Amino acid sequence: ASIRLLRRLPIRRRVAVRAPAGTFYIAELHVHPDRRGEGVGSQLLRWATDEAERRDVAVLSLSTTIGNPAQRLYERHGFEVAERRVDARYEAMTGRPGRVLMLR
Question: What residues form DSSP beta bridges with 102?
C-alpha cells in the first residue's frame, strides 16, 4: 500500500491547491461511514468555525476532491469553491477529475 501511495504523490501535486496564508485550514474532516447523515460533520465544522473565531481568524479553508459528496456539506456551511484544478493523469489514477479549494 505504501508503494501505491508513493506513486500517487507526484500525481496529486498536479492538482494541489494551496490555502491562502492566514486562513484557518481544515486539513482533514472524516466521519465514520456508519455515522454519516447524523450531523457529525456539521458539528465538526461548527467547532472549526468557533475555533477560528476564538483565534481571530476570519477565513476558513479546506480542500477536497471534485465529486466528493461532502462538498455539499461544506457549501451548506458557507464554503465556496475558490480554485479548481483538474488533470487527466490524476483522474486516470484516482477516478476523480481533480481537487478544489474552498473558502468561507
Answer: 62, 81
